């Protein structure tokens, strides 16, 4: 796990805005649901080619592992020069990934995940490239779904009956193979639970627009155009009750060359103020990729909704600011393994108040599921400086944010008007601007103040608004 926390984060105990309901957390557990998989040795080598004056298809072959529900290729070695590339195509559904030397490095010599038991690999040597080839030494395949220890003991953090329903939120994604949930936020980053990041030392993939699983609960993968290799070097994380969080980014998709926020055209906003809309939330919503075995699938276990996107709304029980780096939020919302890292949302809005991390809910109304609240000052500090040099100061601007509190330019309380951010920012600050349009009429940049503008989570427009009469 990568843990990089700025040593000079300020810590102070904030004012509690809601009554605190202290509940026992003795029977809570983290909620990943690792994807069952096996590694099959597989040796194959293409020919060695020099690119010709005109680009040609030099080598095509099929890789098949009989009866595998899905597969992923591992490349032992390759030489693709400056412009040569490989295409990998699923025989089952036609999903295609395009890989060159740079993107294969980003994917750590692995392909995307492909549905079905066979793919076609095609080598495309480019003019001027010499000695172009690839070799394979293994294939990762889907394995039989075995129930986890928590499944064997009974429902995992269902607060009675399973009330989750199918959802199609473009901001939410599945993290494989660890089996967690990640989600896009307005700063351009992705959030999840800290305990989901241990496997990110291996290749981990963030996938959006996930299809239904098979009737026996075996997952099916999104199109390769919707899969993104997580940049392990970007991961900033922490673990522990009320301090379980992770922030990361991905590489651009090899096919579309887009990052997730641009491709999905959606993101959540974040607030540490539970009174954003005048009162604290009576209910919260959790959206994620939890295990599902209710009703049982065709083999008596997981079903076609297994680890697909589902959502539920339930009672919010309050938050406990144990210390500035330990803030627990509690709620009776149905979750299962795989929901770790899910957003905790103000229902009916794009505002999130924390990250779901642990299960423990049951029929007893005194039990709850829980997460890490955004009043956690360590998390706020990490988000404030994420992907900047720590010497740089960042002022956040978000015209669509409903902070419900005094704006201060911090990540949870951004300025809504560009002119306010310009006036408040110090010389040399970065203005981190959430996607949207910002009126620019009448803005005066103080003499001698240099500011850098950075667009996050999509395009930013700055233009003239009508002159006031």
From TrEMBL:
Organism: Rhodoferax ferrireducens
EC assignment: 3.4.21.-
Protein name: Serine protease
Domain of life of the native organism: Bacteria
Protein family per UniProt: Belongs to the peptidase S1B family.
Keyword entries, A-Z: Hydrolase, Protease, Serine protease, Signal
UniProt KW Protease keyword: yes
Domain (Peptidase S1): residue spans on this chain: 179-363
Keyword Iron: no
Enzyme class: hydrolase
